[in-house]
Amino acid sequence: MNRREFLKTSLAATAAVAGTAFLGGSLLASTSAESSKNGAKNGKMKILVITGSPRKNGNSNTLADHFIKGAKEAGHEVVRFDSAFKEVHPCIGCNRCGMNGPCIFKDDFEFVREHIVNADLVAFATPMYYFGISAQIKAVIDRFYAINGQIHVPKKAVLMMTYANSAAPEAKPIISHYETLLGYLGWSDAGQIIASGVWPVGAVNGTKYPELAYQLGKTV
Question: Residue 195 burial by CB count (10 A; 0-12/13-18/19+): exposed, middle or buried?
């Protein structure tokens, strides 16, 4: 079975179990989608923030701090996962999970699994490392594979990214990755903050970007 057929089979099986329908390459969810809608019924969302910086006071973490502050002030329920300070084993593509089951690795990804399924919005905060997202947050995203069927439901997402240079084209690969991920999952973009020209720890302070992150959290 080639990869395309494997994906179709796996997602179709997931849809049957979850009471959803797989049609034309899209997973049309009912149960999980309704749960997500109910969670945000009064405009209050469940938000999962996933960070990727290994610097505790790193610039992208600063944006995450401000986003969370704004979101909490708006009454949203926010949980945070700092991937660089957690144990997340890289996916090894063994397919033991069947794209919708337990992973062979029992590590801190269980926290993500617990909160992402019912989250109404997932916020990603990462620095640019060698023109891509950090390895730490990539490991987390790769492990989405094990819950693939459960997160193919309507959600919102946010990208907060920092990088040292100021050339806009250099940010395009990360933005493209993010937008491709959302397209695959059927999520919608709720905002992007691309902070250029910040490199040393604290460089983002004194710029417009922390306030933009705060306002995004309040209005998302």
Answer: buried
Tokens read off for 36: 């997500």
Q: How many whole angstroms separate alpha carbon 25 and alpha carbon 7?
A: 10
- State both tokens at 171: 């940010």
C-alpha 166/C-alpha 197 separation (Å) is 5
Cα–Cα distance between 8 and 17 in angstroms, integer? Answer: 14
CB atoms within 10 A of CB 203: 17
pLDDT in tens, 17-73: 333 222 222 222 222 333 344 457 688 999 999 999 999 999 999 999 999 999 999
* Alpha carbons 143 and 108: distance in angstroms, whole number: 11
**pTM assigned to the model:** 0.83
